[in-house]
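Predict the 3D structure for this chain.
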Amino acid sequence: MQRPRYIPIPDTSLKARCLGWLLATLIKLYALTWRIRVLNEAGLSKDTPGAVIWAFWHNRIFSMPVLHSRCLKQIRPTAVLASPSKDGAILAAVVARFGLQSVRGSSNKRAAQALVECRRRLLAGCDLCITPDGPRGPCYQIAPGVIHLARVAKCPVMPVRVEASRKWRLKSWDRLQIPKPFARVTITLLPFERFDDGELTDGMAALTQRLQPKD
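Done. Predicted structure below.
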């Protein structure tokens, strides 16, 4: 019997789900103090045909579930690529509370199976959020996976910039950014980019330039 090309990771443990519920609740309450502004330069809407790959830096990940929950939850089904590690299980449990699905895999583990599942989700019309410099960096350095996925799924990439007027930076590898209370958080959905042909390195350079942070 032929093995399935994608073997889902078992459901997250009760401990991970409880911790995910707690963290999601705290994030939702904390984010009520933010002043969020969305600049939809891509023109993304429920009528946008086909699926879209969202690309944003790993250190901006804290704000993204809040954006989806407040502005896009009822517009487009969206999944997040999460690591198959224990930390990834907690992340999957957190984003589930914001109405986001999860695909478990990374460039380091389950890469081939995750690519198959990501392509399947995209072809089914589900948007996909990817941090192209994750899961371990280097920070602001794009790995080729996002360009390769855009080609095999024939989907556009939407670069997403997230800027906060005031923020903390954690001492993690990506210097994770957490907007401070009452900060103004500006999320810019940049126009779609297609990478159907051309050199892989050229596509990576172009996406890096589009995502270039202001700080």
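Helices lie at 14-31, 64-72, 86-96, 111-123, 145-153, 200-210.
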